Amino acid sequence: MELKPCSECGVPEIMTSEHRWLDNGDIVQSRAQTSRILFIETENLDPLFRNIAQIIGSDIEHMIITTARRAFGVYLKAFVPKETREKIQKKELDYEPIDAIFRDLGRMNGAGSYDFVDMRYEQDEQDYQTISISEPYSLPMVVAAHVGAIECLLGVDQGYKYEEVSPNVYNVTAFPSSHPMELKERMWFEPYHHRDGDIELERCETCGGPKVLEGYQWHPDRGVILSKATGRRMAIQSNAQLDPVFHELEAELGDTIPRVVVEAQRRFTRSGFYTMDDITDEGEFRSQLALRGLGNLKQLEMKRKGMSMRLENVALPLMVIGQAQGFFEMGFGVDTTVDWELSEERDLEVEVKPILYA
């Protein structure tokens, strides 16, 4: 897949042609606008998963992969007509060239660099397909992406295995394997429904994408997207790849899980990955949230006695809450409590208070 940059802003045209930034702080797929998309920092993902696992004392990797593979399958089906998938499943068409396009798409989206290793497709239990991935943005998520791609094309549930073959390079294999019935019955997600908003991101006059994207650098050979200002790594991914993980954890382990996820993100935010420059200007913070597809910031107030925030159409609310709490603690050097309310319309209200005033 050719990386053709916009002549004005330099952003790959596939980035702005395949995704739409809406007026309410949301991003959707151009081909399937029921699928909500995010453009977010990724270096917090694996630390977040590890923090959650450490707090609850249980491995969660299988839940992450099982949930995310379904979301990847939904995302990728928008690129492959049903008739093409049916031909593959009748062995009238080789699926590897299409999976190669998926791997290129993963590079463009910042997931890492995928390469083909080996495969067998005779429609029996001995089938497999192995790829390598270097510089994965999140190991569970790239495993899920490969499994989801093969399930999308073959229409058969897949298991997986992976191994590190050299520093930060992994071989990932998908193979036919049925999923437990309880997982078949859960981990689904609701289609996105648009609500109008009032956000106007400045647009590139040539490609029509948000002009602020010119502040990011694509490295397609590595499958890496970096912020020119901060050096942080970014990636395009579906909201449905992460949010259902937290719902599944709550269903499996109890109603303390939302607090656990918030606490895990608070710890990471306060660790110093972010700076106060990320939040001090309300207008800029509103634009940055909209650029990431996280929602429409309607109100933000931060004083020593506390912080309040209201965000419409929020995506990943638990991560947003933990990040807000971590920002406040980082800025004022205090421990805090946090409370929130999330409406059925996904409008989020957050209150952070120092322990002294709680």
Features:
358 residues, Muramoyl-pentapeptide Carboxypeptidase, domain 2, four-stranded antiparallel beta sheet, 14 strands
Task: Map the helices and strands.
Blueprint: H1 13-18, E1 19-21, E2 27-29, E3 36-41, H2 45-56, H3 61-77, H4 82-89, H5 96-108, E4 113-120, E5 128-134, H6 139-154, E6 158-166, E7 169-176, H7 181-184, E8 216-219, E9 224-227, E10 233-238, H8 243-253, H9 257-273, H10 282-292, E11 296-303, E12 306-312, H11 317-332, E13 336-342, E14 348-354
Antiparallel strand pairs: 1-2, 2-3, 3-10, 4-5, 5-7, 6-7, 8-9, 9-10, 11-12, 12-14, 13-14
In short:
By secondary structure, the chain is of the alpha+beta class. It has eleven helices and 14 strands. A hairpin with a 5-residue loop joins strand 1 and strand 2.
Your description of this structure?
The model has no long low-confidence stretch (mean pLDDT 88). Helix 3 (61-77) packs across helix 6 (139-154), helix 3 packs antiparallel against helix 8 and helix 9 (257-273) packs across helix 11. The radius of gyration is 20 Å and the shape is globular. It has helices spanning 13-18, 45-56, 61-77, 82-89, 96-108, 139-154, 181-184, 243-253, 257-273, 282-292, 317-332, and strands at residues 19-21, 27-29, 36-41, 113-120, 128-134, 158-166, 169-176, 216-219, 224-227, 233-238, 296-303, 306-312, 336-342, 348-354. 37% of the residues lie in helices and 24% in strands. With 358 residues, the protein is α+β, with helices and mostly antiparallel strands. The protein is built from 11 helices and 14 strands. The strands form 3 sheets. The protein has a 6-stranded antiparallel beta sheet. Strands 4-5-7-6 form a 4-stranded antiparallel beta sheet, covered by helices on one side. Among the domains are: 59-180, Muramoyl-pentapeptide Carboxypeptidase, domain 2 (2-Layer Sandwich), CATH 3.30.1380; 255-354, Muramoyl-pentapeptide Carboxypeptidase, domain 2 (2-Layer Sandwich), CATH 3.30.1380. A hairpin with a 5-residue loop joins strand 13 (336-342) and strand 14 (348-354).
